Amino acid sequence: MEGLKGIEGITDRKLVCEMKDVLNNLISQLSAAGLTVHVLQNRAVVTERNELRAFNVFDGETALQFVNQPEHADKIISFNSERFYCHTEYLVLRSQYFRALFCGVYRESSMDFISVHLPAPGNMEPILRFMYSGIAEDALFEAHEMFSTIQNANFLGVEELLIKAAENFASRWKFYAVSPLFRRSIVDSEFLSSILELGTKNSVFSMGDMLRIVVWWNEEEESSECNFSESIRLLMEHKCLEESSLMDLEWALGKKPPLFCFIEQSAFRPVYQRAIQNSARALEKIRVHEDKIKSLSQCVRTLTRQLEEVRCNRCQMFLPRAAMKTRTCIVTRHQGEYVVNKGWSCCRQLIKRSKGCKPVSLSRHCMSLNARAR
Fold first, then answer.
1. Strand ranges (DSSP E) for 105-173?
2. How many CA atoms lie within 13 A of 290 on its CB side?
3. Rounded CA gap, 133 and 58, in Å?
4. Which domain of life is it from (predicted)?
5. 179 strand-pairing partners
6. Phi (first) and psi of residue 311, to 5 degrees
């Protein structure tokens, strides 16, 4: 066995070496063709080489030093009238929009000044810093910037930023989903699908949360011809009906009745079966609780009877029924007073100090059949 493992290790090392050789040969061929290969953490980007520019592309925090810096910048881009010095090599790394703009046949590839109209207002610099470094700053996901970040990142094709935005949205969905910007900002059902997937994967959503998100997302659909195809697809793909409670379903039916009119009846079969199971479990719990209530009621009646005060036939004192067998009954001819836990007093003295005023007899109480009236 050890020999076989050694052979497998040698084979794996040979395979890795062969793959490295193939990769190096491929990079050499691309370089010979006049192209530049930028190798980052998880991807390699190929761009046209500019012989007049001696510029190295970095990843991570090191790349932040070039953000909006004139040095080595080859473009000035105006994002909604906000201008930035930009570097083509960084813009094409994470943006599908700029990759198509600068690496294609568009005239913008040769222009020094470019104007880009973003769909949402907001601070563009945090997005630009992410495009350079791949580091998502907290400013991108603040309450007043979240939806702008989603819209602009979707417009620029920055998929990595969209994934991070979806993760942040999933963790704070109760705050974002009720916003009126929710439906207007997130028009792509695939992005909403990624939110549902990430929330489920990270165990962020509880039962019924996904159903509420889909209903809120499609809440403003008022077209009479709308068949809610995207919402129904999301409900079916992510099993929102199967994972929702009856209370959540009741809320959704009241919030968006037309949506559920287009859903096939077979989709509600798991809901019906789960309702029957929940009803059976609820009845069983009720039965167990009723048994406990009966037992507790019997205990209360027993304790109440034991605490009931009755009169002793000898000393005529009222004592709890439970104390009749433990307390001492003192019978005497003298008129005196018996103090519980202290003893009998006739001459204003306790029995231990009294010389002549002693009780006639000491015995247990004799219980009267008539309880004390309350």
1. 113-116
2. 6
3. 8
4. Eukaryota
5. none
6. -95, 135
